Amino acid sequence: MPETSTENAAVAKFALIIVCLGSIIGPMGMASVNIAIPDLASDLQANAKMVSWLPTLFILSSVIFMLPASKLADNYGRKRIYAYGLTLNAFSSLMCGLGTSIEWVLFWRFVQGAASAMIFGPGIAIITSVTPSHKRGAALGIAAACIYVGLTVAPAVGGWLTELWGWRSVFLFQVPIVIALLLLIKMRLSGEWKNDKKTQYDWWGTFIFAVFASSLVYGLSIIYNSLGLVLLGLSAISLALFILHQSRSRRPLIRVQMFRENRLFSMSLTTSLFMYASNFPLIFLMSLYLQYVKGLSPSHAGQVILVQALSMAIMAPLSGRLADRFQPRVLTTLGCVIVACGLLVLSCMNTQTSVTYITSSFLLIGIGFGLFSTPNNNAIMGAAKSHEVGAASASMNLARTIGNLLGMSLVNLMVHFYLGNAQFTPEQNPILIKTVEMALNMSLAFVVVACVISVLRGKSKSD
């Protein structure tokens, strides 16, 4: 079945369409929430500390469930797990929209993160399974562009919905869209893609990894006291145990030897981790800055932020085609340099900075990130062996989500330390600005590290 489906151009094309539609819906639901946070915080009387957990818990759950979801997809079918993820996403979105307390919304945001892991990991694996190797870069570029399309429209959609119907509509609007996509999969997408032989599931490895991620996130948020240091120590020990367990397991969630055997694979993943660590918290904080400090409406703030994702969406397919012809490290390094320039420009802003200046900075960051992402993804998937595309896909998505988690956890620390239990009021604006400045400097440092690693990664197999 997998081989026949791979050779069938019509099925491959429709599978790409399905994955791309999911790649639009998922990021749209995730990123649009950032614009609605001020309205949500006001309605549910949520303080700064609780609000900062909204994106963090989503990413934490995605990290915890990314490997299990991809492993289950390899065993039981990538299309099946992908569809289950869409279903769970619709249900958790509905529950968030019905929330009457910040604790309720936070719980279902965590569930949403698990659904996201079930969508993105198997989705990329489906594309890799049905697309010939010489067309993989272009296909991954289209998929990446769709993610950026979702991110592009998310701020504007989130802003408009919040102004018209309130923050609940930001969660509820995606439910009928996901249901329509599920019906489309049921009726039109034939075939299934999975490994020929099933392997037993590693529940112990999943538990160790969950302990690592959870203790890292919470430990970073309270690092200024002794419990935080204890949790960070537990996180380091758990990570070491996870690597040791995976290297010795007969049924690992991910074959850690892949990282030692292939320099291009491991360094491309590391580059991805630092780049995403630099970008994710930026959107969260700039949404707060534009609405609280600059006084923009939700829709206006969304239009400013969408410039970054729009430029990503334009660059992603172009860089995908270039990735099929040129060395990945040349394109990715250039992308890193452009992002660094954008962050450097943005770091010079203050309370008097014009919206045009901020928009221009977002444009530069988006161009660089669009140029970086697809060639880097193509390098990762191209470096993997054919029977390990599922593991490579999981690794790529894991690097992205761990990067997001690392960056957001450090911003969480800043918010908890400087704002704590305070409500967002004009009196807190100077502290909010200070937090944004620190986050921008952190993001710039991450991009510089990514640029160095990108240069050192080496050439791809094709050359």
* Sheet having the most strands: none
**Structure classification:** mainly alpha
Per DSSP, the total helix count is 17
Number of domains: 2
The count of DSSP E runs of length 2 or more, i.e. the number of strands, is 0
Helix content: over 70%
Which characteristics define this entry?
Growth Hormone, Chain: A; 463 residues; 17 helices; mainly alpha; disordered N terminus
Structural summary, described in words:
This protein has 17 helices and no strands. Residues 1-7 have low confidence and may be disordered. Helix content is 82%, strand content 0%.
Helix and strand layout, with pairings?
Elements: H1 2-7, H2 9-44, H3 48-76, H4 78-97, H5 102-130, H6 136-165, H7 168-172, H8 174-188, H9 203-221, H10 226-248, H11 257-261, H12 263-293, H13 298-323, H14 328-346, H15 355-383, H16 389-418, H17 429-456
Gist of the model:
It contains 17 helices and no strands. It has 463 residues and is mainly alpha-helical. It starts with a helix and ends in a 7-residue tail after the last helix.
